[in-house]
Specification:
Layout: H1 2-10, E1 19-22, E2 25-32, E3 36-41, E4 50-57, E5 60-72, E6 82-88, H2 95-99
Antiparallel strand pairs: 1-2, 1-4, 2-3, 3-6, 4-5, 5-6
């Protein structure tokens, strides 16, 4: 059951390193999709906690709101950051641009040719 849940959760996600700014600091995503993203931070909130911030999409900072879907604490004494998954509350306008939906094949997030 765990494998199916993990597989369905990762479907539609892309491994993208995108800057995310929270009230407590800045981090970068490990992956991102229409439903949310995962990231690493020194300290992670508890699952269910509300979260909001800004995510950089093609040079524009877009505001997001959501909740912590899951969290795994790290160990700072060993230099291990915690990981967490954020589920968007209302989606994220502009996410299709980041995911490559709706732009010609062979162009980057800003529309430039790759």
């Amino acid at each position: 059951m765990e494998t199916r849940t993990r597989a369905s959760r990762s479907a539609g996600r892309l491994r993208r390193r995108v800057k995310v700014t929270f009230l407590g600091g800045t981090s970068f995503t490990s992956d991102i999709g229409r439903g949310g993203f995962s990231t690493e931070r020194a300290r992670v909130p508890v699952p269910g906690a509300p979260v909001e911030g800004f995510i950089d999409v093609a040079g524009a900072e877009l505001r997001f709101r959501g909740r912590i879907a899951w969290a795994r604490a790290g160990d700072l004494t060993l230099g291990l950051r915690g990981r967490m998954g954020v589920q968007f509350a209302d989606g994220l306008p502009g996410i299709d641009l980041l995911l490559g939906v709706g732009r010609p094949r062979g162009t980057g997030p800003s529309g430039q040719t790759c």
